Amino acid sequence: MPRKFVVGGNWKMNGDQKQAREIIENLTNATLDPNVEVILGVPAIYLPLAKSVLPAKLELAAQNCWKVAKGAFTGEISPAMIKDIGATWVILGHSERRTIFGEKDDLIAEKIGHALDSGLKVIACIGETLEEREGGKAEEVVYRQTKAFVSAIGDRWSNVVLAYEPVWAIGTGKTATPQQAQEMHACLRNWLSGNVSPSVAELVRIQYGGSVTASNAKELAGSPDIDGFLVGGASLKPEFVDIVNASS
Length: 248
Ligand code: PEP
Fold this sequence. Notes:
The chain contains eleven helices and eight strands.
């Protein structure tokens, strides 16, 4: 079965109520390729607003969550709460969570396991830093990051999208070339085949993320192992429509 192209917009900590409405209205009125799954990663505080104006063709993601359902965890939100307001996805392991907030592989794995237990789908992010790439360690790093998720995911890979986001390409305007991205995606699929199962390797969708724009999306989308994008900055702009439609 072909893998359905999946494009996520990660708004990060941007926007206000007005802009949230405008972005969703623009997407509502746009012609989006019906063969593409589109997920909006909206700041938690605006998720209910987004849900109230969201057309059926779009899905909603939180950008983070905690690893238990409720309790004394000031400032956190749980998968149960995310589901309660009608969102169906959560982005976990983003490099900004890893670098700015110090999240490590084992915590991310716990969060992934609990989010899946709670019935959310997960965009699980991985990616190497520039130093790691230049040190010839890019593959080793993304394999380590992916391996950390394996037992938490178990047999629930159909509810997981992997997002390969080289840290040096996030928010920098420096995109991986289609060759660099394809090469890593193919390596990851091969790793999944050997370390999880050939059928998981075949079914799991691997997004590329890192300075994707309307002008580079089409070429990236043409690579056989790139099954979608996770888009930061450009997801706040009208060009997100062209990124969603880049695989058609
Ligand atoms: C991201 O935040 O996941 C991302 C890829 O950001 P940008 O597209 O701005 O590089």
